[in-house]
Amino acid sequence: MSNGSPFTFEQAEWEARSYVGQKEKLHGLLDETNGKAEEHDEFLVPAWESLQIFVRLIRAWLEGKYFLPAATLLMFIAALIYFVNPFDLIPDSIPVLGLVDDASVITFVARSNVGAISKFRNWEISAQ
Asked: In the predicted model, is pLDDT for residue 12 greater than 60?
């Protein structure tokens, strides 16, 4: 941030609002998320599955295949924004520790939305 303070999840939630009506911007976020996740997958083991679910869920929503309440969607988008931002509470430039806060946010959002994730996983299985 311009004032030198770290990027917070609250700021990510605020920024997430600007992604909802912008399909290209949201697709870019998903691509950026996948790229960063692939680079650091060994450090994200506990949060990896949740992160992948967030990406699949948002893609399904973007394609008009899956409905999600706005507040829930915003939390998932905010988690991805926080994940890709290198200047969050623990900067990504700090090896290993820089991803700890990212994994914590992903885990927090997943635990806060267990019901929505469960419904989505059931939908995915039935859609196959």
From this structure: yes
